[in-house]
Write a structure and sequence with these properties.
single chain, 132 residues, three-stranded antiparallel sheet, 9 strands
Amino acid sequence: MINKVQKTESEWKQQLTPEQFQVTRNKGTERAFTGEYYNHQQEGIYQCVCCGTDLFSSKTKYDSGTGWPSFWAPLKEDNVRLEEDRSLFMRRTEVLCPTCDAHLGHVFNDGPAPTGQRYCMNSASLKFKEKD
């Protein structure tokens, strides 16, 4: 069972940078090739910047050529929540943090084996915990 993290808009604004707030709380997107983690190569775990939930392992990260950090699978299926997104006249699958409902990015069916999926995340929605 997940213990939901709920905060007011004001509390989120105090905790997050303006870009992190725009991406995670307002479903924004950072510009391609500008995020801290798109070309990040260290071993460890990518967590939700809002609540610290473990989301992705560096073992599933790959260079998709899109300019955003991309992963072929989450750490565990329940570590992300998927929702249909029909914004911007498109039909996509949004990826959210199951603990705090932060917008993380989108998942597409054009990734590498073994899953064929590309979890295209915003660096602004992530923080990195280096492998011990």
